[in-house]
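## retry 2 of 3
previous attempt timed out at serialization; input unchanged, resubmitting
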Amino acid sequence: MGNKISYIGSAILYYLVVYPLSLLPLSVIYLFTDFLYFILTRVAPYRKRLISKNLYKSFPQASHAHRRKIKRAFYQHLCDLLAESIKNISISERELKRRFKITNYSILNKLYAEGKDVLLVSGHYNNWEWMITAQNILLRHQAAGIGMPLSNAFWNKKLNDRRARFGMEILNANNLHEFLGCEHPKPISTLILSDQAPFDSLKSYWMNFLNQKTPVLFGCEQLAHQYNSAVVYFVINKRKRGYYKVDFQLICENPKDMYYGEITEKYTKLIETAINKHPEYWLWSHNRWKRNIPENLEVLRTEQQAKFEKRFPNAKKKVKPESTMINSENPMSSRYAKF
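## retry succeeded, writing output
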């Protein structure tokens, strides 16, 4: 009964409020979220303690004033992101192309010409929702995206329908391998946002990220080896309010040439670099460090590597000289280190 009431309530909210709001010009929707920004910063700050804790641990040498400045800028970005996500429900293909552009097609065009499937990996940085929606109209590869189903059945179906309206294939644990393992008329580009907290700390790849020992999702690296997919990192940069550009960087074309953990470390460090450059654009309200650190990370790493090399015997066996996984924390690399 409760699920039915929730479904009906969500449908009423969508059709009476959210969808009509999405039909307004983005500049008008921003007026609503600008008021929300006032509420979040002056009246009822959203996840204030969690955001402050995440910023403190990520930038321990930054001054309190600088972390507070980042937090306020994040709230502004979060409100803009809400406005743009609402607009995403009904945005036209023409307007999306005008606001969301690719800067370097050459990497993906080369892989497409070679018939190579691609894993596009990044984090929840800037407007990832527009990337999901625009992927199939901007790239030559058939677009796919991996996501976790939402607990609310109405919003899960409605948002996925809206994301997929330009041809994106929505994947999850139930249909992922069936889709990737099939033959397709053209190469696939599968989008993976790989910066959230894994479900199981013992099945994660542990490394230093934003000055903390952090469990990182290992699925992208496993999929790359299993399906011999190239891995390409992408970063979304904000040109101005409501306008973005996407840059691509090749991580590897042949996964078997990469040693255990190399793919994961490379793209995670690139995500970290983007965050250090403009920290306000990352999702600080996510409880990223909620998993407990296992007692013996060295033993865990050895066991994980042995399992990985047994599963993928053709992977490169060279051991990295210095691991970023454990030992001492990395020196502060952000631009706020000296404040």
